[in-house]
Amino acid sequence: MRVLVIGSGAREHAIVLALRKDPAVTAVFAAPGNAGIAQHAQVRAVEASSGEAVAALAGELGADLVVIGPEVPLVLGVADAVRAAGIACFGPSAAAARIEGSKAFAKNVMAAAGVRTAHSEVVDNPADLDAALDRFGPTWVVKDDGLAAGKGVVVTADRSAARDHGAELLEQGHPVLLESFLDGPEVSLFCLVDGETVVPLLPAQDHKRVGDGDTGPNTGGMGAYTPLPWLPQDTVRAIVDDVVQPVATELARRGSSFSGLLYAGLAIGADGPAVVEFNCRFGDPETQAVLALLDSPLSELLNATATGTLAEVEPPRWRDGAAVTVVIAAENYPSRPRVGDVITGAEDSGRNESSAVLHAGTQTRDGALVSAGGRVLSVVGVGADLAQARENAYARVARIKLAGSHYRTDIGLAAVQSRISV
Ligand code: GLY
C-alpha cells in the first residue's frame, strides 16, 4: 500500500513512523512534512488546505490511501476532494468535520444525541457579552466558536480576563462560546469511526497549560501520557457507549456520517464523563504517545476506516507499559514564538526501544536544524510503567539544546504520584 500523509507536525511524524514499521506499506509520502519527517518519508510540497492540490498529488504519487492529519484541511473539505478523485481517504467530510469546526454545531449534535456536556451560550454581539458573563462563572470558560489550535480557550476565575478574551474574539469577528466549567480530570479518547462502527484506541491525557502545575495560558498541548492508571477499566466502554456511539449515530442520521478519527475530550466528574470538546482528527501531542504503544499494523486500521470495513478487522493490539510525550517549545510560545534558532542533540530522530524525537516546527538551514514554529519537537519515552516512560522521555529531552526553549517537567507526574482520582 502506498500512503500519503498530509500535515507537518509531530503527530504526522508519529503516523509516518508507525506506517514505516508496517509490512503492508510499500511507500510513505508526506506533504508538506518537516525536516524530521523527511528522514522517513518522501516529502512533497503541497497547499494542504486545497482539496484539488492534495487530490492531484495523491494521483501523481499513485497513493492507495491519503491520511489527513490536521483539522483545517478537513474542515475545508480536502477529504471530500480526495474521495471524489476515487482515492481512499482517512478523514471526515467537511460536513462531519463541523463537529470540530463549529462548537455550536457540536453542542447541537450532542443535545440531539443525549450526550452530557457543559451548558453553553453563543454570543455574537458585544452588547450581549456582559449579561451573558453574569449567567456563568466563576470559573468562566470562554472559547472561540471556530478553529483556534487550542489557543482560543480561556479558563479563568477572573471575570475581567474572561471579558477581555470574549471582547477580543468578537472584535475579530469570531462568535464566542461561553460554557459552564466542567470539573474533574481530563481524558482524550480517540476512536476510529466508519459511519456507525466505533473502535476506541488507548485513553490518554493532554497537558494544555504552558507551565508546570497547570499554570499559564492554554497551548496546543505541552505533553501527554497513556494509558491512564487512575481511570476505572469500564470507563472507556462507557464513553464509547454513552458518548461516541450516539454522536456517530446522530451524524449518520443527519446524512453527515463520520469517517476517520473522532476525538472525544472529556472531563471525568462526580457524575461520570462529560464532553469538553470533540475534534475530527488525531490529537497532538497524545497521538505521539498512543501510537508508540500500538502493536497492530496502522495501515490496516486506517484503511479499514477509510473504506467502511472497520467491523471486519481485528481490534488494535497494544504493547504493555506506558508512553509519555514531552513537547519542547520555542521561546515565547504560545504568544509569539521565536524561530530560526539552531537545534542540536535531536539527530537520532526515529524510534528506538525507549525514546524517539519527533519533529514539529523544524526546518533545515545551511545544513543545520533550526526551529520554525512554536511547538518544535515532541520527545516520546516508552517504559514498563509510567515512571520509567517519564524517565526515558526526560533523559532524551536533556540531550536537546535550543536557545530559549522550554518544556513542562511534570508530564504524567500526578498520575505517577497517584494524585488523580475519579
Ligand atoms: N491535544 C489537543 C488537540 O489535539 O487539540
Overview of the structural elements:
This protein is of the alpha+beta class. 29% of the residues lie in helices and 28% in strands. It contains 13 helices and 25 strands. It has a six-stranded antiparallel sheet. Strand 1 (2-7), helix 1 (10-20) and strand 2 (27-32) form a beta-alpha-beta unit. Helix 1 (10-20) packs parallel to helix 10 and helix 2 crosses helix 4 (78-84). The longest helix is centred in the middle third of the chain and has 19 residues, at 235-253. The termini are far apart. The mean pLDDT is 95. The structure holds glycine. Glycine is lined by residues 150, 206, 221, 279, 283-284, 286.
Question: What is the helix content?
Answer: 25-40%
pLDDT < 50 stretches: none
The main sheet comes to: 6 strands, antiparallel
By DSSP, the count of extended strands is 25
| Order of neighbouring strands in the sheet with most strands | 12-15-18-24-21-20
Basic shape? globular
Distance between the ends: 43 Å
Strand content: 25-35%
Mean pLDDT over all positions = 95
Summing up helix and strand content along with how strands pair, one would put the structural category as alpha+beta
Number of helices: 13
Identify the bound ligands: glycine
* Rg over alpha carbons: 20 Å
Please specify the SSE layout and strand pairing:
Layout lengths: L1 E6 L2 H11 L6 E6 L9 E2 L7 H11 L3 E4 L2 H5 L2 H7 L3 E3 L3 H8 L1 H11 L6 E4 L5 H6 L5 E5 L8 E4 L2 H13 L4 E4 L6 E9 L2 E4 L4 E2 L2 E3 L3 E4 L4 E4 L8 H19 L5 E11 L2 E8 L6 H7 L5 H9 L15 E8 L13 E2 L5 E2 L3 E5 L2 E4 L2 E4 L3 E9 L2 H12 L3 E2 L10 H4 L6
Parallel strand pairs: 1-2, 1-4, 2-3, 4-5
Antiparallel strand pairs: 6-9, 7-8, 7-9, 10-11, 10-16, 12-15, 13-14, 15-18, 16-17, 18-24, 19-25, 20-21, 21-24, 22-23
